[in-house]
Amino acid sequence: MPSNGSVSDAPITQFINCRILKEHTLQREDLWVRDGRILDPEKLFFDEQGYADRQLDCGGAILAPGFIDVQLNGGYGVDFSTPSEDPGAGVAFVAKKILEHGVTSFCPTLVTSPPSVYHKVLQRFSFFTARCEFQSGGVHGAGVLGVHLEGPFISLEKKGAHPEQFLRTFGGSGGVNPLLEVYGGLDNVSMVTLAPELAGSQSVVEELSQRGVTVSLGHSVANLSQAEEAVQQGASFITHLFNAMLPFHHRDPGIVGLLTSNRIPAGRSVFYGMIADGIHTNPAALRIAHRAHPAGLVLVTDAIMAMGLPPGRHTLGQQVIEIQGLHAYVAGTTTLSGSIATMDMCVRHFQQASGCSVPEALEAASLHPAQLLGISHQKGSLEYGCDADLVLMDDQMVLEATYISGVEVWRK
Amino acid sequence: MRLVILEDYDLASEWAAKYIRNRIITFRPTAQRYFTLGLPTGSTPYACYKKLIEYHKSGDLSFKYVKTFNMDEYVGLPRAHPESYHSYMWNNFFKHVDIDPANAHILDGNAQDLEAECAVFEKDIADAGGIDLFVGGIGPDGHIAFNEPGSSLVSRTRVKTLAKDTIVANARFFGHDLSKVPTMALTVGVGTVMDSREVMIVITGAHKAFALYKAIEDGVNHMWTVSAFQQHPRTIFVCDEDATLELRVKTVKYFKGETETLCLVFTSYQ
């Protein structure tokens, strides 16, 4: 507010005594916020002759961009794929809870489900996303970026915990019509995970990419050239690398080979999701992937409804799962059905297992998912003009507070 | 003239910073009576600014009632460029202290009408009641601000073309690429600085020794514009041992004796 008012009269907050994640390092700098966005203090000083209305002392803590989770199936008893009377309320409930894990934006994920479920959930979802505050996040919860549809166009052999009876193929017509039929529409869809070896996938990948939907490869038995072709059509993500795909083989690396493929179109990058809970991927495998392609690593929780719940049996999608400690299995089997680790736990575990720097670990949960979704000019970074979605943490990356648009939304 | 000789760069910078601090504190500035300070940029005052910030953070020194006027700024360099003098002052000083942004004056090298910009700057100084203490450095060619050899000793704030020496000296800030160094600048004139009530020139390093010799042991000459301050009633030259290498032993001995007295006087302020 103290300024000549030439640009804005809105109050200005200055975070002082902090180390901010900027230009891939932790810098001893203050962070300035106005109107929910990060402000350039030099411009404020010279153009507006302005200064801060209030200063927040961060006590020497690390201030980083809020985490972005692009694969979250539910939590705290809510399963996004099991529609209740009010699917929007379930998403809102989880959105509020995950603020405690430093997640400020996320993609609610639906596993393979029958068309009726997709229609119901997406239709109700559209109604809710019409309200801006639901999307941008705030005191009420993390921002919803869009839905991640994981299935049903996936491989039978690599279905994992997905229900077999609802798996589908593309059929002969080409284009996204089979998807529109199954999903009921593509509004508010951020990402689709599919298996590129399914016949007719090329035109689907191409059209989805053109519509601005991120295409991810997963739950697939594709070989490397099928995967590379999908990338050329526009695919840019790999759903939980190593899990639900063919293992790396030295004569056909499969989807994993995308990390070092030389057939990625110029100017584009392939990102890959890693569930760094210490269970879904052996730390040595995590390190191999990280060292092969560090800039593409995106931390995801793939957390299921049991995240936040006590041990025992619970329902996920159309199936039943069982929790034992940090493990969640398809009931009666040893097939992992998803993770129950929280995002901040994943960030700490990733840093510890890979030996990477704190900035690298933080970027894997903020900058990289933002780049994947093409929103890095707005989210996932502390550059001037970006949304002031922040996490405050100590040197061990244990969270102290979460902010959305510069407003404190959770404190330890 | 006073010539204060300290052992090295850090001690010279600290002495200069303490002098500025003490001047401001004893002046006791208020909203009705600001302290006006002229400020330089470059590598020489860098440590001095760090010390001033230290004194501010410890609570000893406030810039709330201080008005500052910088000496110069490049022409045509975007203000946000990391080598602009706006960036220098923001990063090395303004962002760490409590100065009111409205009181921090720097010439705008991207103004539509550069001459008008210079005239307004002179007027702003006059409106502020003149400058109480102008702090400056010296170029290897003996220039004060960008008053290159040949500048009138009664000049005012104006546009200047930079001398080759200056461009070469500044290339290190532009990736050693001479073509990237600005060739023109807005600068306060020699006359502008001479109008201040007190002048303090900080000179450190052996590469400045010859310029210091020319400035204080030779005549007043427009080829070495700092020499003009021989005719100012209150000038202090603060330097390190290396900067005195071209001076006569007699000069150095005389002023070293005086320095001891000065230090006794000023350390009483702590």
UniProtKB/TrEMBL annotation, chain A:
This is N-acetylglucosamine-6-phosphate deacetylase. Its EC number is 3.5.1.25. CDD domains: NagA. One of its GO terms (molecular function) is metal ion binding. Its cofactor is a divalent metal cation. GO terms for biological process: N-acetylglucosamine catabolic process; N-acetylneuraminate catabolic process; negative regulation of UDP-N-acetylglucosamine biosynthetic process. It comes from Gadus morhua. Residues 62-407 form the Amidohydrolase-related domain. Gene3D superfamilies: Metal-dependent hydrolases, Urease, subunit C, domain 1. Substrate binds at A161, N243, A244, R251, H280, L336, S337, G338. It catalyses: N-acetyl-D-glucosamine 6-phosphate + H2O = D-glucosamine 6-phosphate + acetate. It holds the Pfam family Amidohydro_1. The lineage of its organism: Eukaryota, Metazoa, Chordata, Craniata, Vertebrata. Binds 1 divalent metal cation per subunit. Keywords: Carbohydrate metabolism, Hydrolase, Metal-binding. Zn(2+) binds at E150, H219, H240. Pathway: Amino-sugar metabolism; N-acetylneuraminate degradation. Belongs to the metallo-dependent hydrolases superfamily. NagA family. It comes from the Eukaryota. The active site is at D302 (proton donor/acceptor).
Automatic annotation (TrEMBL), chain B:
Its EC number is 3.5.99.6. SUPFAM superfamilies: NagB/RpiA/CoA transferase-like. It comes from the Eukaryota. GO terms for molecular function: glucosamine-6-phosphate deaminase activity; identical protein binding. Keywords: Carbohydrate metabolism, Coiled coil, Cytoplasm, Hydrolase. Coiled coil: none annotated. Pfam families: Glucosamine_iso (PF01182). Residues 16-232 form the Glucosamine/galactosamine-6-phosphate isomerase domain. GO terms for biological process: carbohydrate metabolic process; glucosamine catabolic process; N-acetylglucosamine catabolic process; N-acetylneuraminate catabolic process. It is an enzyme of class 3 (hydrolase). Belongs to the glucosamine/galactosamine-6-phosphate isomerase family. This is Glucosamine-6-phosphate isomerase. The gene is LOC115543919.
